[in-house]
Design a protein that fits this description.
The protein is mainly beta. It has one domain. The chain is 0% helix and 43% strand.
């Protein structure tokens, strides 16, 4: 992926697109998606967020494991965001359209949704700009993996959260 903003979102590799209008705020929903690796030796997992101030997204418990794999190896580094973004790359957080959301995306230690154990990752970035959280994973092309994660909208009007691979 390019290191400049904005990062293009490849439509044919989008895994999920969430828009939570009218949903309960600050409550995690757990998701598991089946992903086929599109490259070897690495595939990049990307979470892209666009939302207005105070209506962002919480993310936690990110995991990728091979389906039917013999060793059940976790491919994601720091999927629980243990106090920092070690293993992750954050792009474009200073390029958000609105000044209130510039630089807001980060690991937070307090204020995570109820029922979770801090820390968690929080992102917001005024539309139409996106902030990107990504990690390069060791994969084998054509191999099937389970991607699981927990997300919670920060408000009942949270905008886009797109999950894709590159």
């Amino acid at each position: 992926l390019p290191s400049t903003c904005p990062v293009p979102i490849p439509e044919n590799q989008t895994l999920a697109n969430f828009t939570f209008t009218g949903q309960v705020a600050n409550v995690y929903n757990n998701y598991t998606l089946t992903v086929t690796a599109i490259s070897s030796p690495r595939t990049t997992l990307v979470f892209a967020v666009a939302s207005i101030h105070n209506t962002g997204w919480f993310l936690d418990n990110v995991s990728v494991r091979e389906v039917g794999g013999s060793n059940d190896t976790e491919l994601v580094t720091n999927g629980d965001f243990s106090g920092n973004l070690t293993g992750w790359t954050l792009l474009c957080s200073m390029n958000c359209s609105g000044p209130a959301t510039r630089g807001v995306s980060s690991v937070i230690l307090t204020g995570c949704p109820s029922g979770s154990i801090a820390p968690c990752y929080y992102a917001e970035c005024d539309m139409p700009t996106y902030v990107y959280l990504m990690q390069s994973l060791a994969t084998t092309i054509g191999t099937i993996y389970n991607l699981s994660f927990s997300i919670a909208p920060a408000s009942t009007t949270s905008n886009d959260l797109i999950v894709f691979i590159a």
